Write the structure tokens for this entry.
Amino acid sequence: MSRSIKELAKEYRRIAQQCLESLAQDHPICDQETAYRCIRLLSVDIESELRKLVVRFPRTCISCRHSTPTYGTNAVCDLTARFCELGKNYQNCDSYEPFPDL
């Protein structure tokens, strides 16, 4: 599913909130360090930060509409860690498409 920067920001926000909410459960999905990063992430304008990264890293996975947040304890709140929904990587990608809302 191709997405916009606004949708990607919502996804990062949702993941960060899930991480923080899970700390109150018996089996949290993130550790304390990641929770602190999630708190910091939720305190900034995520959409604005993503736009800065797209300008800084043009024509890379970071600026491609097929990228999604990387799931995993260490990368949950890292705006530069992305996964390709098409299963590509930067070495074999011929499917780059810029975000439509730039």
In short: The radius of gyration is 14 Å. The first helix runs from residue 5 to 22. The mean pLDDT is 87.
